[in-house]
Design brief:
The complex is a heterodimer of chains A (about 110) and B (about 120).
Chain A lengths: L3 E4 L2 E5 L4 E7 L4 E9 L6 E7 L4 E4 L2 E6 L4 E6 L8 E9 L7 E3 L3 E6 L1
Parallel strand pairs in A: 2-11
Antiparallel strand pairs in A: 1-3, 3-8, 4-5, 4-9, 6-7, 7-8, 9-10, 9-11
Chain B lengths: L4 E3 L2 E4 L5 E6 L6 E7 L5 E8 L14 E5 L5 E5 L8 E8 L10 E2 L3 E5 L1
Parallel strand pairs in B: 2-10
Antiparallel strand pairs in B: 1-3, 3-7, 4-5, 4-8, 6-7, 8-9, 8-10
The chains are: A mainly beta (about 110), B mainly beta (about 120).
Amino acid sequence: KNQVEQSPQSLIILEGKNCTLQCNYTVSPFSNLRWYKQDTGRGPVSLTIMTFSENTKSNGRYTATLDADTKQSSLHITASQLSDSASYICVVRANSNSGYALNFGKGTSLLVTP
Amino acid sequence: GAGVSQSPSNKVTEKGKDVELRCDPISGHTALYWYRQSLGQGLEFLIYFQGNSAPDKSGLPSDRFSAERTGGSVSTLTIQRTQQEDSAVYLCASRLEAGQYYNEQFFGPGTRLTVL
């Protein structure tokens, strides 16, 4: 079972509007959570990283929140632009001293239309 | 500086043929990862190299898949006797120090593999 669930699977919004993407996880013990943006035909690029003690982190028009108690994160995009059209991937790292420790969500596909 | 590069960018092959995909990580990065991304699916972990340690091969889907990393730098992912279900984008990523939890992975642009 995937330990990182993202919603919605896809989203279409008008340019200039705001939107919020959700990420719920069951990964334990928790180390950190990243949001990546993946443009079509490109590799993912990190937007934000959040650790257990961080509730909010911003990167320009992108704001991520984390509730470690409920194991939920959100990515809020403000004043969307056409270039925001991409897949947004939530990745949760387990607190492990060895081996591979990343858990990827399947992503939310965002389309911003004129 | 240069990012992670992968070659070829696209590869079309016939079922049953072997293919090799190459990844050049960022210089100095000790950790290297291979992922597979099928259409409409999330990233699927394949294999992870960290320095001189034995690689974590737990994600390889079958014994047709193998990877090596020479001299702690360039990596090659080999798929033998390709099948149509192997068609996907294969992404490589590198990371400065796997032990530092906050270090991010830097991804290459991927190789799109199509098996006819």
